[in-house]
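Predict structure. Input: Steroidogenic acute regulatory protein, mitochondrial, 187 residues.
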Amino acid sequence: DAKATVSSAALPGLGKVFRAEVVLAVPVARLHQELFERIEQMPQWNPTLSRVKVLQRIGTDTLVTHEVTTPSPGNLVGQRDFVSVRHRGRRETAVYLVGTATHVEPLPLQEGCIRAESRLSCIVLQPLAEDPGCTRFTWLLSMDLKASATMLLGGWIPASVVNHVLPQSQADFIKHLCQHLSATACP
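Output follows.
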C-alpha cells in the first residue's frame, strides 16, 4: 500500500501550501484518465466526495467543475463545495493537472454547504525512469476553507485545524485512489 509523504511551506500570496508525494504502481495514462477524464466518477471511489459535476468544457483540456464534500459527523470543518477551473497539460512524459477556484460559472450556494476555494491544486504525474509502469504522483494544495458562521469556535477555523485537515485529506484521497486502482486494475 503506497504511503504519501506530506510536507508544507508558506508561500507569499498563497499562504500554506501542502505537498503530498507518493510513487504509485500505475501508469501515468491510467491516473490521468481517473483524475481528469473520469472526474465525475470520483465519488464512486472517494467517500469524502458526494458529487462532482462538470459544468462546462472549454476545449479538450479545460473543465469547470463543481465538487461537494460529504457531510461527516464530528467533522471539525463541515461540509464544503467548490467551483473550480481545471486544466491539463503535458510536458515531455509528465502530465500536469492544475486547478483553482473560479467565479466564471455562477452557481447558487448549496444547502448546508460553505463555498470554499481552492487557491491552488497542482498534480504532477511523472513516469519513473526505471519503471514507466509506475508514476511519481506529486500534489501541491492550498485552500481557503472559509469560516463557518455556525461553528462553535466563533466562526473561525484555527490554523492548527486547517494544518491538520488539508494534509490528512490529501493522504485520504491518495489512499482511496490506491484502493480504487487496485480494485479495478487493468489486466
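The chain has three helices and nine strands.
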